[in-house]
Amino acid sequence: MLNRTTAFLLGLLWCSCILHAQNESLRTFFDLLYDHDNLELTLTIDPVRLQKSEGRDIVFSTRLDARSNGLVIYSSNAKVSPRGNFRLKECDFPPLALDLPKSALGQQELSPTDNYKLVTHCNDSRDTNQIVCKEYLAYKLYSLLTSKSFRTKWLTIHYIDEKGHPLLSADAFLIESNAELRHRLRGEWVESDRVSVDSVDAYQFELAALFQYMIGNRDMHLTSQHNVRLLRFDEGRKFLPVPYDFDFSLFVKAPYAYPGLVNRNNVRRVYLGYARNEWVMPRVFSKFRAERNELIGLIEKELKLSERERKDLVNYIDGFYEDLLKAEYQMNYRLE
Question: What is the mean pLDDT of residues 268-281?
């Protein structure tokens, strides 16, 4: 027979497990937005104070309203803070971290998952929204190659002052939270900043590395988990790499990338993969060959980009495919 204390503790554990399972099964704030089109967020914030913030410690209390086709689908108080070490210094307007109150999420029958990243415009230049769109498109291209990637959602943010007066509107996109991705892929995050190459799924990493090569991005490092997170699964399975932050790529051409360079068109692609994984490259190349038309089509259909931008991006990706077939291709691996 169990004594009363043991029975009580077991009961608490059972209730905790049930509550956790219920929370995990609920739709999230991201799921809510992901299922709607023509999204607009309204944030009550002071852009001047935000632009003058010198670090990520500053937190702004705000009112957040989310609308789809003009109808409110979510509304609550929220907290917003600047994020991103480099962009925080280089941009007039930094990317944002969004913290939603768990109580408000619960009242709207949503999961308590409450921390999100918003990728916002960097400055007031004419093409700043185009840059945001190109990074958003980079996420979409990678998601076309593998579902083991962060989901994103395009939206417009309207910034208003405390009296409700409009301050500015700009394009942005929301990134699926770390907690959601972990739950969706049924894994746990690897927290170590030093991992071995052999502990990582070779195919998935070389897929990520070749994608980075395709978009001209050098800003990723596997073993230190720089701009790539690793998920662990059951014993016997290798870690899964999930890359993010593509703004330093030549595909995006953010104004703060490659500072001091007069002509970034002369920057060569650099492959970030590992020669020891050569055995998986035929599968990786086959995947890219099979998806070529879909990748190009995704770019051509992105009407938020100007016709000139779409044409330049298609040419850049076509150049990648031409490189793969050249005898002097700088990687150790070739298609033929």
Answer: 89
